[in-house]
Amino acid sequence: MIPWEFLAEARVPGGDLLKLSKRGDEFSIRTEGYELMNSRAHGSEEVLAQEGLRRIQAPEDAKILIGGLGMGYTLRAALNAAAETARITVAELVPELVAWNREYYGHLAQDPLKDTRVTVFVEDVAEAIEKGPWDAILLDVDNGPDGLTRSSNTNLYTKAGILRAKNNLTQGGVLGVWSAHDDPAFTLRLKRCNMKVETVRIKARIKRGSRHTLWFAKA
Ligand SMILES: C[S@@+](CC[C@H](N)C(=O)[O-])C[C@H]1O[C@@H](n2cnc3c(N)ncnc32)[C@H](O)[C@@H]1O
């Protein structure tokens, strides 16, 4: 068995310490207590972009916001589904995550940051949301709507947070949210904000039997 090699660490502003490790061609980003990302499991992260863009029928000049970068799989899937003239903005809170992508593992998702359609904002996705209108806002910044990476992330999933996202969507635009678990209370909150909600459950490859949840909500 190849041992894990520690590569780097970074602090989420106001949140956890992230540790990047490598074992052969496998990369892992861990935070205190759980694995935030593993390069072997990214199917549902890609479906977030594929299904999100399918729901807006990805217009030629689509403006798409992705929060955050992680290992870049959601970004790559969005690039593959979007037109050559689309603009994709990634909001990533942790500057080191952008640097790690360029330095260590960009190849995992075919170097998405090199695509000229991509703009990176090193900032809280909550701030980027306000720079809409967006045709799609795709959120994968936490383990779920409980804001695990950073306590202030919970504000993204409150009624006020949902309404802020809704107000920054174009007509027919979609809010997509990734989660490691189902959260019926969040589904209810989306509905109470008068959004039409679809919940998609996806088998997670890494833990047999477990499922990831995606929400797609339209005004
Ligand atoms: C689970 S990873 C995203 C994985 C990504 N979907 C992929 O395909 O690789 C979560 C990312 O969100 C970032 N993040 C956490 N809170 C954020 C926030 N409020 N704004 C922007 N990025 C945030 C983390 O630093 C991390 O890069």
Low-confidence stretches: none
What is the H/E string? Answer: EEEEHEHEHEHEHEHEE
C-alpha-based Rg, rounded: 16 Å
- The counted number of beta strands is 11
Proportion of residues in β-strands: 25-35%
Strand order, biggest sheet?
A: 7-6-5-8-9-11-10
CATH topology: Rossmann fold
Largest sheet: 7 strands, mixed
Give the CATH class: Alpha Beta
How many individual helices? 6
State the helical fraction: 25-40%
Q: What are the bound molecules?
A: S-adenosylmethionine
Q: Tell me the CATH superfamily.
A: Vaccinia Virus protein VP39
* C-alpha end-to-end distance: 50 Å
- CATH architectural type: 3-Layer(aba) Sandwich
Could you characterize the architecture of this molecule?
The chain has 219 residues and is of the alpha/beta class. The protein has one domain: Rossmann fold. Helices cover 26% and strands 33% of the residues. It has a seven-stranded mixed β-sheet with strand order 7-6-5-8-9-11-10, sandwiched between helices. Bound molecules: S-adenosylmethionine. The site of S-adenosylmethionine has 25 residues, from strand 4 and helix 2. The site of S-adenosylmethionine (SAM) has 25 residues, from strand 4 and helix 2.
List the helices and strands and how they pair.
Blueprint lengths: L4 E7 L5 E7 L2 E6 L2 E5 L4 H14 L6 E5 L5 H9 L5 E5 L3 H11 L12 E4 L3 H5 L4 E6 L19 H9 L1 E11 L4 H9 L3 E8 L7 E8 L1
Parallel strand pairs: 5-6, 5-8, 6-7, 8-9
Antiparallel strand pairs: 1-2, 2-3, 3-4, 9-11, 10-11
Helix pairs in contact: 1-2
